[in-house]
Design goal:
- The chain is mainly α.
- It folds into two domains: about 1-60, Multidrug-efflux Transporter Regulator, Chain: A, Domain 2 (Orthogonal Bundle), CATH 1.10.1660.10; about 75-129.
- Helix content is about 65%, strand content about 5%.
- It contains six helices and two strands, in the order H-H-E-E-H-H-H-H.
- A two-stranded antiparallel ribbon has the order 1-2.
- A hairpin with a 5-residue loop joins strand 1 and strand 2 (about 35-40).
- The longest helix has about 35 residues, at about 80-110.
């Protein structure tokens, strides 16, 4: 399939496919006689795997490691577990930080009921050093 067909089949932008090739996440496809890229099912599966990992917030280095490990079928999965658990810890820390941020923003928002003037705004007052 062409790069456009691959993009459509995987719901990934063409520029993303080219980027994945450029940084080594995707193997270079074969070329047609007209020098166009020609992708196969393996490219589609790999791209969908990359897309899912990125949707889950894995870094490019983690994606690279998981791609490498996914091709080593007979290996124990302890490294996959380590990468996943490390990423989970990062996500949980971000959730804690976002919960704290939401509480702070809620408290700021509750200081002002609207309808006043900016010069008297309790939110601006609270944010001003």
């Amino acid at each position: 399939m062409s790069i456009g067909e691959l993009a459509k089949a995987t719901a990934v932008k063409i520029v993303t496919i080219r980027y994945c090739e450029h940084v080594g996440l995707m193997p270079a496809p074969a070329r047609t006689e007209g020098n166009y890229r020609s992708y196969g099912a393996e490219h589609s599966h790999r791209l969908q795997f990359i897309k899912r990992l990125r949707e889950l917030g894995f870094t490019l280095d983690e994606v690279r490691d998981l791609l490498r490990l996914s091709s080593e079928k007979s290996r124990p999965c302890d490294q996959v577990d380590r990468i996943t658990n490390s990423h989970l810890a990062t996500v949980e820390k971000k959730l804690q930080d976002l919960t704290k941020l939401a509480a702070e923003l809620r408290a700021l928002s509750n200081r002002c009921k609207g309808g006043g003037r900016i010069g008297e705004c309790r939110i601006i007052e609270a944010l001003t050093p």
